[in-house]
Amino acid sequence: MLLTACGALADGNSYLEPCSGRVVTVDHVAGAVTGTRPADASELAPPDVEPFRVALQGALQSYCSDIYAPHGTLAVYGREGSAAAGSMDVTVCLSSAKANLRNFWSGRLGSCWQACFTPGTGDITLSGLMEVDVHYCEDGNVQLRAKHNASTSTQAHDAVSFGSAVAGAIQRAEAQYYAALEVCIVNSVCSIRQTLRHVCARVTHLHA
Amino acid sequence: MATHEALVQKLLAQSPPAELPDVVNSLKLLTSNASLVDSAAAAAARQVAHAHMVALDMPGGAGKVRTVLFSFGYSLSLLTLIDLLGAAHRLRRACGRQ
Question: Which of A52, A64, A171, B45 could cross-link with A28 by S-S, CB 3.0 to 4.6 Å?
Answer without folding.
Answer: B45
